[in-house]
């Protein structure tokens, strides 16, 4: 009975957190990438090493946002296009492996 109550309380807490996540108007970059918090919180793979790679790319290109990344790739040199493409491909391949497990 206690485990069930704990699960229900956890689900309620997660729902409240999700509602706050969706309502917050500041810093919308991360919520655009992570729409469903339960999927993020309950994920098996806890690695977030991509941040280091993203910071290295942004050091050369400036801040990347979902709204401006394509334009930045178009406006900059070929090397920038290749770096962003390799970064995205790495993320997608990793995610595909996770799904296939």
Radius of gyration: 18 Å
Quaternary form: single chain
Give the helix proportion (percent range): over 70%
Instruction: Specify the overall morphology.
Output: elongated
Helix-and-strand structural type: mainly alpha
Unreliable runs: none
Helix-strand string: HHHHHH
Terminal CA distance reads: 32 Å
Indicate the proportion of strand residues. Answer: under 5%
Summarize model confidence as the mean pLDDT. Answer: 80
Largest sheet: none
- The count of DSSP E runs of length 2 or more, i.e. the number of strands, is 0
Outline the secondary-structure elements.
Layout: H1 2-23, H2 29-33, H3 37-41, H4 50-61, H5 69-75, H6 78-100
Written overview of the protein:
- The chain is mainly alpha-helical and 101 residues long.
- It has 6 helices and no strands.
- The two termini are 32 Å apart.
């Amino acid at each position: 009975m206690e485990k069930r109550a704990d699960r229900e309380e956890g689900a309620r807490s997660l729902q409240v957190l999700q509602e706050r996540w969706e309502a917050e108007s500041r810093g919308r970059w991360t919520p655009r990438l992570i729409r469903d918090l339960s999927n993020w919180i309950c994920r098996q793979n806890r690695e977030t090493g991509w941040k280091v790679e993203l910071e290295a790319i942004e050091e050369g290109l400036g801040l990347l946002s979902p709204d401006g990344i394509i334009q930045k790739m178009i406006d900059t040199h070929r090397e920038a296009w290749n770096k962003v493409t390799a970064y995205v491909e790495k993320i997608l391949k990793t995610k595909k492996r996770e799904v296939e497990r």
